[in-house]
Design a protein that fits this description.
Blueprint: H1 3-17, H2 22-36, H3 43-52, H4 61-74, H5 77-89, H6 95-108, H7 114-124, H8 126-131, H9 136-146, H10 157-166, H11 170-199, H12 211-236, H13 242-260, H14 269-299, H15 302-313, H16 317-332, H17 337-354, H18 359-373, H19 381-390, H20 394-417, H21 419-429
Helix pairs in contact: 1-2, 2-14, 3-14, 4-13, 4-14, 5-6, 5-12, 6-9, 6-11, 7-9, 7-19, 9-19, 9-20, 10-11, 10-17, 10-18, 11-18, 11-20, 11-21, 12-13, 14-17, 15-17, 16-17, 16-18, 17-18, 18-20
């Protein structure tokens, strides 16, 4: 292995630690390699690769679902889901913490973005949680932890990224996300209840909602609840592709917001477009940068060498899975989750398949790992998002975060070594 085989990786890591944006770091590292080795790929082809990386039909699902999530926020659908969640769990100890967790689960079927969910719930729920006596740091931790559920519930962006990178079925990845997302929700709610009981955090409601209140809230929110189930049914019966489902979600959200709830106005179009483009651009730019870096990795045959080394060194799939879990949790603390998925899925998925691990099961493991890492110190993106919006000190956040890290890692290990839980819905619908 020559100097130029490893130099781009070293350069990329240096740029990461200098806090250069992830996309720029990958593009610079890949460009340096190809400029130093023009025989591998000339700069014109490199630019073409950069542009072409986002032309995949599957990748179009990302801006579509992102835009749909933004429209849902403006149309009043998010508020109705929150009202429903409060009626369901607001009367319990730590009521708004439970509302936070349930709302993230419901939002998974609408936005699929952990960062978007973190930002939205920090603005709406953290001030209310503080008002009811919860500490600001604990409120931020619950918000960031609950956002880990959102990308796992279809149409999570990480599910789409893995499917593309590992050549796995997008529809089956969507099917597989429901039960793991619910497992994470239950685990977080149990932990929130225990901590709230210990700290005597008050519920947000004095008593359980009446049957009439629940019925009215359910009817009011049913238009939103139809989205995840509609996507599931459409994919199951071959009505549309995941990308087409994203486009339909936008149209659906506009119709509901403008004509049913009548809260979506023409004056909001500019803000919706700006938020959608801003949220999408970062992800798509990372995809472009990762594609450039993948060009270098492929040319140097690094993925093949890593795969061969891991297969030679690890013969048990159970040992492999625990090694992957530790590796991804560590890497995810320093890397953007999307970038890590794009870089590592092509490396690890073939090894997993060779050792007898189902690609869909492995994809869920990867997604949960990288999502958990997004809310853990020192560089978790959800951590920075909620602390910045709520003006919470990182030091205070770190004091409350570890029980939630342990809980989510516990759920991760359960799903890792009980693949039947993950594969139940895909096997049922296949």
């Amino acid at each position: 292995m020559s100097f130029w085989s490893v130099a781009p990786l070293v350069l990329m890591l240096i740029l990461f630690f200098l806090r250069v944006p992830v996309a720029y770091s990958m593009i610079i590292a890949g460009a340096v390699y190809f400029l130093a080795n023009p025989s591998a790929m000339d700069i014109v082809m490199l630019c073409q690769k950069l542009v072409a990386s986002n032309s995949s039909f599957i990748y179009l699902a990302i801006p579509f679902f992102t835009a749909a999530g933004v429209v849902f926020n403006y149309s009043g659908i998010t508020r109705r889901l929150m009202n429903l969640a409060e009626l369901l769990v607001g009367h319990m100890k730590g009521g708004l913490g439970h509302v936070n967790i349930v709302l993230s689960t419901l939002m998974g079927g609408l936005s699929g973005s952990a960062i978007a969910d973190t930002a939205m719930e920090t603005k709406i729920l953290v001030p209310q949680m503080e008002r009811l006596g919860m500490s600001r740091s604990y409120s931020c931790v619950v918000t960031a932890a609950s956002a880990c559920i959102t990308p796992i519930i279809p149409p999570g962006i990480c599910l789409i990224l893995y499917s593309t990178c590992a050549n796995a079925s997008v529809a089956k990845m969507f099917y597989a996300g429901y039960i793991p997302g619910l497992c994470m929700m239950i685990g977080l709610m149990v932990l929130n209840w225990l901590i709230s009981k210990k700290r005597n955090y008050a519920p947000s409601r004095e008593k359980r909602g009446t049957a009439k209140e629940f019925k009215d809230a359910f009817i009011d929110a049913i238009w939103a609840l139809m989205v995840p189930f509609g996507i599931l049914a459409a994919l199951r019966f071959g009505v549309c592709t995941p990308t087409e489902a994203g486009a339909i979600s936008i149209l659906y959200s506009i119709i509901v917001g403008a004509f049913i709830y009548k809260e979506l106005k023409w004056s909001m179009v500019g803000d919706i477009l700006v938020e959608s483009v801003t949220a999408t651009a970062g992800v798509m730019f990372i995809l472009a940068g990762a594609n450039v870096l993948n060009g270098y990795l492929t040319w140097e045959r690094i993925p093949m060498m890593i795969s061969q080394a891991m297969i030679a060194g690890i013969s048990s799939k159970y040992v492999f899975l625990i090694v992957v879990n530790v590796l991804l949790l560590l890497i995810g603390c320093f890397f953007d989750g999307g970038a890590a998925m794009i870089l590592l899925a092509p490396l690890l998925a073939p090894v997993a398949e060779a050792l007898g691990v189902d690609l869909i099961h492995f994809g869920i493991i990867m997604c949960i790992n990288l999502t958990i890492a997004g809310f853990t110190p020192p560089f978790g993106s959800q951590m920075f998002t909620t602390c910045a919006i709520a003006n919470c000190r990182i030091e205070d956040y770190m004091k409350d975060v570890w029980p939630y890290v342990l809980m989510l890692v516990g759920v991760l290990l359960l799903l890792t070594y009980c693949p039947a839980i993950v594969m139940f819905v895909p096997n049922l619908l296949s």
